[in-house]
Amino acid sequence: MGNKEHIINLFKKYLNDQYTEKELDEILAYFSLEEHDSKLVHLIEQELEHVSEIDSELINSIGEQVAHNLFRQTKPKSTKVLTYRHWLPYAAAMLIIFMTSLWLYRYTGESKPEIKEPIIVEKVIPPGGNRATITLDNGQVLILSEDQEGIVNSGKTLAYIDGSTIQGVHDARSITLTTPRAGQYRVTLSDDTKVWLNASSKLIYPTSFAEDERIVDISGEAYFEVAHDAERPFFVRTERQTIQVLGTRFNVQAYVDEAMQHTTLVEGAVMIKSVKGSDIVRLKPGQQVIANEDDELSILQVEPQEYVAWKDGNIILNNYDLPEILRQLERWYDVDFSAIPAEAESDRVFGMIKRDVPLHDILRSLEDSYNMIQFKINGRRVMVSKK
């Protein structure tokens, strides 16, 4: 093809189901195909991945069309749908589309479900917020302000982000920052390292680090922006991994109720050692290490934004199954879900959930996506049943 923008425009029309027969013939000729079959979407995906010299306006245009194709609830033309890494070049455009709403897409062969009545709830369950406690090494527990986003450690002084001092911690040598269900908080450590703590998580750290190393312990989920200090390596310890860094940005998910624990590198470099085994791996940006229940480490190539979006108020669902989604909702909304009908457990969902909407709004979207199930809220218990 002599005109790159022309063929990209054809791809856009195809993904949006707005092509003519003549345009389809041109696309087929481009890929040397004799007829329209299931390979075509995959070939277009691959071709778009290699496009590198398109102006930003065209990228945004294609991104919008791919986004609509991903999230509409109609039968895909191929047995394979576009995954997050395939629409990565268009992430900026897609985020603009989804920032003000909640969208879900489930890959099934079913048509769009009929309009249903809203979920009726006696009490609206709001999303989580800034909730946390600190426990000092003398056993004293302090409840942190919900009006603040985080705390800052400076030697023996502990203050909120706005500068107001937290009293009674000047003699503490170690602090445990704990978020409950429906809670999140951030902390700036004494070396200027910043940590965002997700719901149901715990961070143990010293008020002042040693001269030769910096060590913290984490359970649950946390995002780190580690201050560079070549003389003092930074170690993050979980139940299954020890992560060593000098200065970098990464996310650690180490919930005890998840079979897999993973560390996702956004920037810099980290070295990870299995706690019980002998495996040692080194990550590059865009890679993730997974520790299974046998403490075996494996590396995947991922899109980091998918795993750090929670700190910015989003949950990105890239090929998630319903149990994975509900565990996240349990932690963020402080609810418990009943057992899931077996028919719905394995279906995968693509989309994005805003973390600042009431629970019933998300459940309604899940009902639209999984049109075989329904939810009923009873207090903080959510019943999941088959229709």
From TrEMBL:
The UniProt record lists the keyword Nucleotide-binding: no
Residue ranges occupied by any Protein FecR C-terminal domain in the UniProt entry: 315-384
Transmembrane segments: 87-105
Protein name, as recorded: FecR domain-containing protein
Sorted UniProt keywords: Membrane, Transmembrane, Transmembrane helix
One Pfam family hit: FecR_C
Domain FecR protein: 176-270
Signal peptide: none
Source organism (scientific name): Sphingobacterium chuzhouense
UniProt keyword Ubl conjugation present: no
